Structures are given as C-alpha cells and as structure tokens.
Amino acid sequence: RNIVPDTEILVTAGATQAIFTTLLALLKPNDEVIILDPSYDCYEAPILLSQANPIRVSLNDDYTPNWKTITNAFSEKTKMIIINNPHNPTGKILNESDLENLEALLEKHPNVLLLSDEVYEYITFEQKHISTHTRTKLLDRCITVSSFGKSFHVTGWKIGYLVAPEYLMKEIKKVAAAENFSVIA
Fold first, then answer.
1. CB count, 10 Å around CB of 13?
2. Which of 12, 20, 98, 141 has a CA-to-CA distance to 162 between 20 and 30 Å?
3. For residues 26 and 175, is the Cβ–Cβ distance under 8 A?
4. What would the mean pLDDT of 33-45 be, rounded to a whole number?
C-alpha cells in the first residue's frame, strides 16, 4: 500500500492512544460501534465518552466471527465496526473468507467505518496475518492501528501509529493535537 506520510499517518503515545483518539474524533452521540467480544478493554471508554453506544457481538465458541450475528447487529445508527486481528486475547487470526465477509458487509453499509486494531500483526505462528492494508475495498474507510512496541517486541515502548485516509486523518489529528498539546507544542 502506498501511504502519504504527511496526510495519512499519525504517531501516537501507544496504540491505545491511537484507538482512543480515533474514536473520540469520529464518533458522535448516539452512534453505534460494533465490538467483537471478547475484546480489548480500552475500546469501550472512548465510545462512551463520545456518548456513542458500544454494541457487543460475541465471537463463536472457537473465537471465529459469526458473520450472520455481526450483520444482524448493524442498524441505521452503526457508525463503525472494530476488528482486532490478530485477536487479543485469543490469538485468532482472520482468514481470507473472514475478510471477504467483512468487505461484503461493509459494501452493504457504505457509511460505516472500520477500525482495524492490528498491533499483533507480527506475532503470528501458524497462520499469516492479512492486513487491511492489502484490501483495496476497505482502504477508503479504514483506520488501521499498530504498535512499534509490539512490532519490535519491546512492549514497554508505548509508541503506536495509525494509518487512515486523509479525510479521516484530518479529524483524528484535531483530537490528537488537543490531547498532546503540551507534549508537541
């Protein structure tokens, strides 16, 4: 994927800040956000702070996504779906079929954004991680979050980043500037 560094990348104080900043920037009151459970515990707080509503959808017993249940959770208020791939805490990795199902679902809902938490992208063993960066159907509405600390196996580093199309990044950077004003000013 070709990325324009000046307009499509934001380095953050950890991937959690990238997630938090994205959600605060892009959600409005009463928006709904689909979260696949079990999930990283830091997804819900910024959703609630935005006065939006987390909609929790359980994964199957083997921790694979149930695309019918996920599809049924969508409504006219759905603004975003959050995926975590590879998944924390289970380690499950989305396969090609899962990504095709996600693409088909989002084609039916053209106004829904995708937040793809991919901080464990380089910590895989039996199955290769497929990034949203490789999915041309998703690029114009996907915010992909990763972590230099996780990528380089230095988890205490707390340096994250996100990649998003410029029109979304403009909004995200507004919140990031306010969050980090005393650090970056």
1. 16
2. 98
3. no
4. 94
Classify burial at 17, counting beta carbons within 10 Å of its beta carbon; exposed 0-12, middle 13-18, buried 19 or more: buried
* pTM over the 0.85 mark: yes
- The reported pLDDT for the residue numbered 107 is 97
Phi first, then psi, for residue 161 (nearest 5°) are -160, 160
Q: What is the mean pLDDT of residues 6-13?
A: 93
Whether the pLDDT of residue 23 is over 50: the answer is yes
**96-134 CB burial, b ≥16 within 10 A, e <16:** eebbebbeebbeeeeebbbbbbbbbbeeeeeeeebbbbe
User: Which residue carries 């960066």 as its tokens?
Assistant: 133
In whole angstroms, give the CA distance from residue 134 to residue 127.
16
The confidence band for 185, taking pLDDT boundaries of 50, 70 and 90, is very low
Q: Is the distance from CB of 58 to CB of 69 less than 8 angstroms?
A: yes
DSSP bridge pairs for 113: 80
